[in-house]
Structure formats: structure tokens, C-alpha cells
Amino acid sequence: MFRPIAETRPGPSLGFTFDGRAMTARAGDTVAAALLANGVAACRQTPVSGAARGPYCMMGVCFECLVVIDGIGNRQGCLVPLREGMRIETQAGRRQPDEVRS
Ligand code: FES
Questions:
Q1: How far is the CA of 79 from the centre of ligand 1 (A)?
Q2: What is the pTM of this model?
Q3: Does residue 99 fall inside a structural domain?
Q4: For the chain, what is the domain count?
């Protein structure tokens, strides 16, 4: 469905995990772009029905890209630059006010 334009920005790759699965993406990618490049189309579940959702606008408007990053929920994946070793998880439902996963 999604694939990067490989020749436009060659460079080092960064390692991260999504729900415990090891993945790599290009340095400079956002978290949402890195997930899409790895075939992850859904990164959150809605609070009401639990329906799967994934990045849509890629510019901070739709909030469909919410994920838990290094234990902190409600992070907009399309606005967060990927870093080496990031631990990214599916956001299930709404974030609890004081949620910080260990
Ligand atoms: S993809 Fe729309 S806000 Fe991130």
C-alpha cells in the first residue's frame, strides 16, 4: 500500500520496536512513516468501538496516528522523528491521564 521513494533520501537506518517486533527505518523518517514503511497500517484502536486506525493525513491534523512511544501515550506518530531504540506500541483506546508504561 505504502512504499518509500528509496532513491530520494538514502542514508543510515534506525532500529526500533513496534509491539515488541524489531523493525528498521530510514533516519529522518517520522514514527508514522517508519510504521507504514514496515507494513504497519494500524497503530491504534478507537476508544468507543476498538476499530483499528492508522496514519492518514501525515501532517498533524487527523490524530489517527496516535501511538505509545517509550511508555507515553497519545503521541502523534506523524510529528515525532524516529530515534534509535524507540519502543513504539499500539495505543488501545484512550490514554489514561497519568499513563506511563514501563
Ligand atoms: S496522521 Fe494525521 S495527525 Fe498524524
A1: 8
A2: 0.87
A3: no
A4: 1
